[in-house]
User: Fold this.
Amino acid sequence: MKSLFFLRDDVIFLNHGSFGACPVPVMKEYQKHQHELEMQPVEFIGRRSGELLSAARGHLAKYLGCFRDDLVFIPNTTTGVNAIARSIRLKQGDQVVISDQEYGALERMWRIICDETGAELVIAKIPYPVENSDQIKNALLSAITPKTKAVFFSHITSASALTFPAKEIIDELRGRSIYTIVDAAHAPGQIPVNISELDPDFYTGNCHKWMMAPKGSAFLYVKNELQHMMKPPVISWGLTNDIEGPSHLINEFEYQGTHDISNYLTVPAAIRFMEDYHWTGISEKCHFLTLETKLLMEQVKGMEVICAADSSLFKQMAAVKLPVSAPLDLKEQLYDKFKIEIPVFPHNGARHLRVSVQGYNTKKDLDKLVEALHYFLD
Assistant:
């Protein structure tokens, strides 16, 4: 399976979660689009881009279970969350509730937005170890007050690799005049996603992580009745009298100045790759390897458990809390001595080590990780 990727043979790559890895057939499709663009740039961008992007959005919308024109391509999830935060018109007295498990850059963004608008940021603490999804839901919902205007959470968290019960949280908040904003950076391709069934107000995720599309491909979904309020990160032609598009979201977000759209146009090829190689089955095998590795990592001296061995709480990523005695440069030592590429995150006053298991990983890779952890920590 690793031969389908460009990854180096001498590196045990256990960090798919950070930037993904694009398969060879998908990359070839990406390069094909780039060649077409350069053969006749005006034809490609000026005349055909709208039609091409619409077709690509159609494939992605079918995969995600939503309507094509409620979805727009963006370069990354961070861009999507920033656009949402700038569009919901926070003001003095409003509260935004997030969990203490959110991606650091986006927690920082919410702090800045709240400081600028006079809103209050409320951070709900998720207790470790998490035993079941109800603990997550209840911790988040208990932080809500009559002043809450928006609730923001990750479908799958970054540093702790926890799967949040998105549908249950959204269902609880429906009809309460509270915006539901979901960071789905790690969800599509790792767990089944059906946006229509989830029914969030906003849902933004990456295609370049677990869907294995080229870097810089992501999406923003906005519920149809909320699209009129959306402000694009870059003001361009948008809603001018002489330009019409299929929806407010597409009009304002699709054309953000000249850029290479080949990454977006390759998303259907990434979906086909997963279909051709029966990726649902591969994902399940990866989950069992992740479970096995999680349990073995937790047996290493000083490791602390983040969540129970409950399949609803994690899928192809798992994290453990490192002991205080672990080397400060553990990440670098794992790479230098064992050629293991794996992240170590500072998180809530501790350090988390997170393993990602993708189709190109083997049991041998994961056994080597456990061996290396015993070497450094026992």
